[in-house]
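Lecture notes, unit on protein representations.

Consider one protein chain, 202 amino acids long.
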Amino acid sequence: MAKKRIAVVAGDGIGKEVIPAAISVVEATGAAVEFTHFDWSADRYLKDGVTVPTGTFAMLARDFDAIFVGALGDPRVPSNIHAKEILLGMRFRMDLYANLRPVKLLDESLCPLKNVKPEHVDFVVERARDSLYRAMVERARVLSRARLARVFREPAGPERDRVANPMARRRPSTGLQRDIPPDVSVVRDWRVSAGPRAHRSR
């Protein structure tokens, strides 16, 4: 079996701690993967002014099967220009439109809710890159830093049609809602939009 090629960007802060630990776990499993490390970070930016070298995103798309990213952001770089160019560069220039996070309860003792068993907690969080709302952030820089989130149902957008909706159709009903077909709940963080009217416009 050919090894999967994974580009590693540990980045800043805790990323430099958790990424090596995570890699050691993957290596202990004997998985057929090969890691290549890149030093794109605040340290690199402060050293030579480089955020990402020319041709980086084409190289990542051509030579790797996945990118393993830690954390980006450092108070020594108040503008966080390096984080912006690395993360947003990957998202937009490489069309990385979804971040999938499976959530399962491993043991009943780990859940703060009463009478909830592992078979009751089994869902997937898709953090989608939403071009419209992120473009708003880039233009408006968001006037308020207050955090507010609402949950509501809305028609599927083009990115949810690519991942979330097909996944929901494939997954069986489980847990406490076995009689309810799987569906997609949409959660928006108001930090990344101009206001509630923008939420309803799509």
